[in-house]
Amino acid sequence: MSKLGETGLWELADYLASDMQVCNRVIVERMRSSVPLISQLVKHLVAAGGKRIRPMLTLASARLCGHDVSEGQLRRAEIAACVEFIHTATLLHDDVVDESRVRRGLASANAVFGSKASILVGDFLFARLFQILTIDGSIDVMMILSHASAALAEGEVMQMTAQNDLSTSMAQYLQVVQGKTAVLFAAACEVGAVIGGANPEQREALRIYGDNLGMAFQLVDDALDYVADQEVLGKEVGDDFREGKITLPVLVAYERGNEEDRLFWHRVIEESHQEEGDFDHAFQRIMATDAIGVTLAHAEDYAEKARKALQVFPDSVLKGLLHKAVDYSIKRKN
Amino acid sequence: MSKLGETGLWELADYLASDMQVCNRVIVERMRSSVPLISQLVKHLVAAGGKRIRPMLTLASARLCGHDVSEGQLRRAEIAACVEFIHTATLLHDDVVDESRVRRGLASANAVFGSKASILVGDFLFARLFQILTIDGSIDVMMILSHASAALAEGEVMQMTAQNDLSTSMAQYLQVVQGKTAVLFAAACEVGAVIGGANPEQREALRIYGDNLGMAFQLVDDALDYVADQEVLGKEVGDDFREGKITLPVLVAYERGNEEDRLFWHRVIEESHQEEGDFDHAFQRIMATDAIGVTLAHAEDYAEKARKALQVFPDSVLKGLLHKAVDYSIKRKN
Q: What is the pTM for the complete model shown?
């Protein structure tokens, strides 16, 4: 649990400890393959761990809707594991696309096993999760997760297209964030609601909660790429910058910048021509234009919508922890 | 239909012309996305075409089991399109893994749009097909196709692991062929049987037919990589050789070769050290050891099993054409 720090997410993880234990076991068991290289790569992924925020959202949503704590546990864990598989497969392919060398403080699978293995094992995980969902048999769950997977891939393509393009609009940027992150957060919550036997109002509330939590989470992620402590972040600070990724801090710093700033951003982002010291300069210009402040203010707006969505549920310990998860998404350092 | 040549497959395509028309329309419609780059890449794929042998197998299997010719057409076409999507997504990722520049006589998507776009659009297609299957709602069909997709990815990983390894056994080689090709041929036929309302015996017969047809098809593919006419093949002859792929022609030529041959194969396959003229020499040694003859004899064994599997069905025009498809898989030139 060390990866979760002293945050609201730690408390949620603690509350869900038994469910998460089963979920982690399911993840390991279901990732297994008779093909040795797949098992090796998968071990690497499991060892690298991660926050597992998405499966936690599935488990929490199911429980909030009254899913049977003990009898429902295995099914809940299986569906939560499938949500994590979508995320893991996406990360594997993302690291190939972005040529990332570090992920979660460890060498990326891509760096250790090569991009070919990462592509194929991502495909394997994706197929495997649909096998599990098919055996589970809920058309509703499959509908939500296949839709989320398609939207995720579309979000990744949109992000790639927007790369290095400073004329990206705020609306386009938010659409990318929606696709690459919020859609899966929303789906994670919604499938939890479905298996928890939610009524339509509860289901929609949890979908909206996840969607807005995901937006806040990703906006903070984009800010952290510039302002995080590298040790705490678990990956290299400035990754987005070096890849020429368009994120809100950059868009704001560009829009609010003077002519010199604009020339700078053009060179480093559009022309991908970066020199030593450029990241420090970018950081300085981002701070000078309060681009982080603007980004976090947007994140806070989404966070507020996420909190509001929970109003349809009566107060409970778990509801309180889902509120704290929102606080975490805003205040997190990694 | 020019890609099908004057073969048994042409006749099958002709018989299924109306179904294939609907299927091709479904492929174009369902591949669509609001993300421009996805649409562009997909247009490229559709233009490149291909034999569409897998969806044809689905359509033919459904019809052989008595699927309603007119009322069942759209559903049949949708499921057949999903089978083709699995194949297309796999090809997209394969071309990235193999760094192929040419596919079906045209520049590969990878060469035109880059490997990042190919990875992400492959993911999109894969997610999209599970959306379509979910809307269709047959758990049986989803079970077969998600299982085939997982086995396909495992087959690709096995092939990658065996690459450049001359100690690969015949059994391992056949397992790779099974995974990368036969599994999807079998699934294509089996889902056709399922939607056609087959009884268990018919369903199993068509699965076995597809499995063996796929084995024969891939073995001939491996032979063609050495002996085909490049113009007719639609991709570069010698691709497998240059990638150090272990295929039956190589395994036989290595096993039957003299000491000089073995040194040659070690250098070009295991050490990936290839010089000009090496492919011609490889071709010459493959012919001298009758490695193509052995490969085609194995293919013929599988073809015979495929033919035998059809015995459970009463004679009909369509059954005759499925026999001809087996002949085609053996005699094809591309």
A: 0.92
